[in-house]
Amino acid sequence: MAENKITDFTRKLTGQNGKTGSNGNNNNQTGLPEQPESEKVEDVAVARVIPRVVVIGAGFGGLSVARNLSDKDVKVLVLDRSNYHGFWPLLYQVATAGLDPESIAYPVRAIFRKFKNVDFQMADVRSIDFDNKQVLTDGDPVDYDYLVIAAGSTNNFFGNQALEENTYGLKDIEEAVELRNHVLSCFEQAVREKDPERRKALLTFVLAGGGPTGVELAGAFAELIRHVLRKDYPMLDVSEARIMLVEAAPEVLATFPEKLRRKAMQQLERLGVEVHTKMPVKTLKDNVLYFADGSQLAAETVVWSAGVRAAQLADQLGVAQARGARVKVESTLQLPGRPEVFVIGDMAYLEGYKKGQAYPMVAPVAIQMGKQASKNILAQVQRKPVQKFKYFDKGSMATIGRRSAVFDAFGVRLTGGLAWLTWLFVHLMYLVGFRNRVIVFLNWAYNYFTYDRAARLITGRRPVDTKVEKKPVDKLEPVVLSKVESDNKTAAGSGLN
Question: 60, 366 in Cβ contact below 8 A?
Answer without folding.
Answer: yes
